[in-house]
């Protein structure tokens, strides 16, 4: 059935499918973890990218420096999975081993979807910034700033994606203070089925990264109103809640559930989110009575 026209109230009308855009997190700024690293002890200049080493940032370049002139300190060095960094990581720095006698590639920004700047590594003994090609890093340095700002803090818009962070409808992290975000993370899990009961929506922010979203943001909850979708296939971001007193208010949410058959009595249509990463893919609706409408 199409979007427009009247429907029997005894039957649910499929209004449209909300497309889920999966954004693979390949950048240096948004990764997922649940650990908090103990603070490394102060130390002298380290010539190695290791726990406790002090670093300084110059644009998109990072270098090892004496701790007295450092901007940040390495919390830990993990493998090629940045999501293994501690939760309080501010910057994710990709390290690539350089064979002896080889000229390291020039530093280049690491691309991604985070609101915080991308990270690279300046040439140092045994490591270099990655080339522009998509070759994976062999190691990852997890860096915490020595002073504010701390983009890795919950809601600050960078570092490791975790509970309390705000995300866009495409899964990218954004500072909660900036506004315009889709939802706030209640939890970050491996599968949508692991989301807490208070979850209204969930989306994929990586291959094994599901962000469970609560009521905050633009996610419509029971009792909220939504505008009529323009097409049968609408983006999730376009379906934000609106005031029920608005002239654009089209239907009121009666439930969010796992299947259309579970919509409560009085529901006369629904929206369904496609994809396997969705906690409750069906949004049950009741058409708002509007003057001169069928």
Structural notes for this entry:
With 294 residues, the protein is mainly beta. Among the domains are: 77 residues, no CATH class; 58 residues, no CATH class. 0% of the residues lie in helices and 31% in strands. A 6-stranded mixed sheet has the order 14-16-18-17-1-15, with no helix packed on it. The protein has a 5-stranded antiparallel sheet with strand order 4-3-5-7-6, with no helix packed on it. The chain is elongated and about 70 Å long. The N terminus is likely disordered.
Mean of residue pLDDT values:
72
- Looking across the biggest beta sheet, what order are the strands in? 14-16-18-17-1-15
Oligomer: single chain
Termini separation comes to 16 Å
Poorly predicted runs of 5 or more residues: 1-36, 105-135
Largest sheet: 6 strands, mixed
Protein structure class: mainly beta
Series of secondary-structure elements, N-terminal to C-terminal: EEEEEEEEEEEEEEEEEE
Strand content: 25-35%
The proportion of residues forming helix, as a percent range, comes to under 10%
Radius of gyration: 23 Å
Estimate the global geometry from the Cα principal axes. elongated
Number of helices: 0
Please count the beta strands (DSSP E, at least 2 residues each). Answer: 18
Region (Disordered): 98-135
Biased composition (Low complexity): 110-130
